[in-house]
Batch of 3 targets.
Target 1
Amino acid sequence: MPVPSHDAVVAFVAANRFPFPGQTTWPANYTTLTNAPAKKRSVPTSQGEYYPDIVVIDSDGKTREIGDVEESIDVSKVPLWRAASAAGDQLPEYGTRIFFLYVPAGLETEAQKVLDDNAIPYAGVRGYKADAAGVISIVPFVTRGSPYDHQ
């Protein structure tokens, strides 16, 4: 199976998960921005600005949701994932924040362990893959947010 490029996965996820096609619960004042290939919106960290791959903002410019696409699990990114998570809205009914981490299919368990071991709140961990024709798909792995998001 071919491994899709980082930027192709970011574009696919932004177009098909933030919001889902036909999603009627998506707020009308939300805008989905991507930081790949060009940087548009950052979140603050103790190390400076970080540009998560997908940032959803509302019409007031407030960051609401974050998605990050990784090509591998790199524990040096833990402080960045923590900042990205903190920038997403809280989901008090689920005890987490709106932060989704997308990793190549097969790395989901490792990604979840790194998030859990470092107490990083997240709404979901997802795998991504492409078929022989290069068509990208997302594989829900774990959802700690709304059950609607587990698709």
Target 2
Amino acid sequence: MLRNNILKYSILLVILFIIFTLPLSIKNPYIVHIFIMMYLNIVLAMGLTMIFKAGALSFGHAAYASIGAYTSVLLVTMLNIPFWIAFLLAGAVTALVALFIGGITLGVRGIYFTITTFAFTEVMKGIYIAYPNPFGGPGGIRGIPHISGIETKEQFYYMALMFALISFFIFYKMAHSKSSFGIICDGLKLNELLEQSLGINTKTVRIFVFIVGCTFAGFAGSIMAHYLRQINPETFAIHTSIDIIVFCAAGGFGNIIGAVVGATSLTMIGELLYGIGTYKSLVFGAMLILIVLFLPEGIVGFFSRKRILKSKGKI
């Protein structure tokens, strides 16, 4: 047991050393860019994983990233508010929208909830297109200012990395909490009626988890907008939500480590498919079908099951 723990923590330290020193050893700006987007995708995937863990599957996660992005950009460009204040306000606005939408839609079950989240994404896209002032219309907003003091790719790399690590700590604690909250979250997906019979307000718990997941999507959208320096309605369209779902499915739905593994591996694959444009989402969609059919527990779930069977001497 001690030997396994030493090995596990040694591997973790090596990984942390590599990711913290990567910009110093790799001077190719494109590779640094891939890692920045990967860290932001990891946060998006972890947020959606927590929502799924609470018993809901949202096809509108990218819409909340768009709310954070547009809110942050408009506050900085139109009101000259410093980025860090705009960043926090972007999260607050996203949380309020999530509270309102979640309060309406989380009472709907199954495919109907999925349809409403899909519709919300299209509604937000329509708003951004229909109102060039202030959202820039179909062309979006360009020339977004950098964050003060964070202008190079290396600086953005460390900012995105720290954001991902802080988000991981929060989501992991939520998902693996030994308190009543963690147990309730696990039970929401398994037997919500049983929890309701015990007097637990399951809708309140689900809304809380939904708000947290969406708020971090808003934070990620804010950072993404100021990093890319341009956003448009297509940046956060339905295909982006599908990509996030595929990240979660590839790693393992309801598993925070799985979200990290899925977002990491598929961000790399997605960059290789960058040349085919929007057809990338078709490839991701096909991958989602294959994952559901042949690897329903995801990469992490598959290896966890193999390890358990091996420990029991069944393989």
Target 3
Amino acid sequence: MRRIQFIELHEQSWFPSLLRDGLTDALQFGFNLCKVYAPVVPLLQSALAATRSRVSSDQSNHMHSIVDLCSGGSGPWLDLSRRLKSGGTGRETSTLQISLTDKYPNLRAFQTIKVASEDHITFYPGSVDAMKVPGDLKGLRTMFTSFHHFPPEEARAILQNAVDAGEGIGIFEITRRAPSTIGLTFAFVLALFVCTPWIRPFRWSRLLWTYLLPILPFVLLFDGIVSFMRTYRPQEMLEMVDRLTASDYHWDAGELPTRFAPITYLIGYPRASSREFMR
């Protein structure tokens, strides 16, 4: 199935922020309910170990150990942060801080997650372009279900920006270009009609745009199908890596089997001072 480059409605600058926040809240609820990204925890732990090994002891506890890009409504981080803390690597994991960022930050959702995580998850309040991450945001960069939004040249620019900053990066996509996984979008939209009253933070407007004027389900279905059709395969991401101007980075890409659908991933970090990467 050939990749297509088409627009997703919610990522357009003209799309109302109220509806965008409603959509990202729904996605975040689904990620936490189904825990679809739980299987990537070992990959994250290994990438964190590799990236931490290259910084000096006085730098290893800087606030932003993980900088999540294109966070939407915070994605899977509430669940992942708990798993990383409970099954991690000692003191390094116990001091782990996660910073959420987005070009159009959902600040209300970010604040809710910050409180729920007891401040282990923080957020950057301003707009953050994944191709031009501010220099004060340091740490392993991650992207969940968002890399496919970018056409090839912009996607490569995201990787190049991480390399230029000397930071590790991990990309994870539950979407996949296959008819079987596209069917998951329809199941998720149907579940939205059942679960909407339990999505937090609660918004009366979400009930309006789901039940009375079902714009949110329509956008979720449309953007979901487009997302699957835009997702890069591992080999396509490695081809981007081959075009990067990099000193000496370790890169690994593949598909991680899960009970829902394979998670496509790409992980890179400086090789010179990294530890052995454990898959």
